[in-house]
Design brief:
The chain is 14% helix and 38% strand. By secondary structure, it is mainly β. The protein has 3 domains: 81 residues, no CATH class; 78 residues, Sandwich (Immunoglobulin-like); 80 residues, Carboxypeptidase-like, regulatory domain (Immunoglobulin-like). A 4-stranded antiparallel β-sheet has the order 7-6-9-10, with no helix packed on it. Strands 14-13-16-17 form a 4-stranded antiparallel β-sheet, with no helix packed on it. A 3-stranded mixed β-sheet has the order 8-5-11, with no helix packed on it. The longest helix is centred in the first third of the chain and has 30 residues. The N and C termini lie far apart (184 Å). 15% of the residues are buried.
């Protein structure tokens, strides 16, 4: 055991001169490089500043790899170099310790350009057209009294409403043309056309005829002298309805509104003759006319 320790100590003592020789050779090679200036060289995160212009100055014993890295960094673009035309490095500010560190140049961060905000566009309000109005009244054609609960409808659109206690009804509609129809139980229906513009009002009046207020009229036209029927005689009611007699001299009005009318009969070769007839609801009136030769 003692012998081993002795041999190990002897080996360590033998290696010391060898290490000293290596360090001496490294220092000699480094001091023999003229005019080498290495400033602010970053070797694995360490800054080393060295001057070799003075022959009396001796460098610290650095390895050859460190010096080679320093020379390569000094000749890189943007690094410290003695090449003519190169941009000189920034002046080093003395700091603590044997070396000096360069003052870092603050980088200027460009400010972001303002993004223009589009203006708020306010839409122009569109004018809403004023609604039109269609109003109406429904009455009995004979009594002139209002018909309550009559149905009034519009086409197109299909809107409908019932008349009030005064027989009135009203619709709010868009501008345009409409057909207004009024109907009621026991009455015949009636229709009217109306056109309204924006904001306008139109009024219609219906006079419905009761179907229970109708009668009928039949009659015969003959020769006053011979009592023979007169063919083709013209029979006219005062409401404008016209009939012509047949071969038997007969005429007929199937539906006549109750009331009093003037019946006028004329024929070729005869004097025109008139008479009053009365039509009652649900009844058939009969008129006999005898014409006199003219």
């Amino acid at each position: 055991m003692t012998r081993r320790r002795w041999l190990k100590s002897l080996a360590i003592l033998a290696l010391l001169p060898m290490f000293g020789l290596i360090f001496w050779m490294s220092a000699s090679v480094a001091s023999g490089i003229p005019n080498v200036l290495v400033m602010a060289v970053n070797v694995h995160g360490l800054n080393v500043t060295s001057f070799a212009g003075d022959s009396t100055q001796r460098h610290a014993p650095l390895s050859l790899q460190v010096l080679t890295d320093a020379q390569q960094d000094s000749t890189k673009p943007g690094g410290s170099s003695s090449t003519p035309g190169a941009t000189p490095p920034p002046a080093a500010t003395p700091g603590r310790g044997s070396g000096s560190r360069p003052t870092p140049t603050p980088s200027t961060t460009p400010l972001p350009l303002p993004v223009p905000t589009p203006p708020n566009i306010i839409p122009t309000p569109t004018a809403t057209p004023a609604p039109a109005t269609i109003s109406g009244q429904v009455t009995d054609s004979q009594t002139r009294l209002a018909i309550v609960g009559a149905t009034v409808s519009l086409s197109p659109g299909g809107a409908s409403a019932l008349t009030d206690a005064n027989g009135n009804v009203s619709f709010g509609v868009s501008a345009g043309s409409y057909t207004v129809t009024a109907s009621a139980p026991t009455y015949s229906s009636a229709s009217q056309s109306v056109t309204v513009g924006n904001g306008q009002k139109a009024s219609v009046v219906f006079k419905l005829v009761s179907i229970t207020a109708y009668g009928s009229l039949n009659g015969t036209v003959t020769d006053s002298a011979t009592k023979a029927p007169i063919l083709g005689a013209t029979v006219t009611l005062s409401d404008g309805m016209v009939r012509a007699t047949d071969v038997n001299g007969n005429f007929s009005y199937a539906i006549v509104l109750n009331g009093t009318y003037t019946l006028t009969v004329s024929a070729v070769g005869y004097l025109t003759q008139s008479q009053v007839v009365t039509i009652k609801p649900g009844h058939t009136a009969n008129a006999q006319v005898a014409l006199v030769h003219g």
